[in-house]
Amino acid sequence: xxxxxxxxxxxxxxxxxxxxxxxxxxxxxxxxxxxxxxxxxxxxxxxxxxxxxxxxxxxxxxxxxxxxxxxxxx
Length: 74
What we know:
By secondary structure, the chain is mainly α. The chain has one domain. It has three helices and no strands. Keywords: Membrane, Transmembrane, Transmembrane helix.
C-alpha cells in the first residue's frame, strides 16, 4: 500500500495520533512510564491504548528500516 510508505502521512500520524492528547504530557509517554513501572492495574483497554497510540511509531520505525536496507542493498 502506498499510504504505508509515505513519509508525510506517517509523520503526521506520529505527531497527531501518536502523541495525542498533548497536555499535560503525551498519552503514549504516560503509558510507557506505566509499563516501565510494572504495569500494575493496567486493563485490556489500557493495553489497546498503548497499541493504538504506538502504531504510528511502529510504522515510522518500519519505514526507516526499509529505507536503510534498500540504501545498503544498492
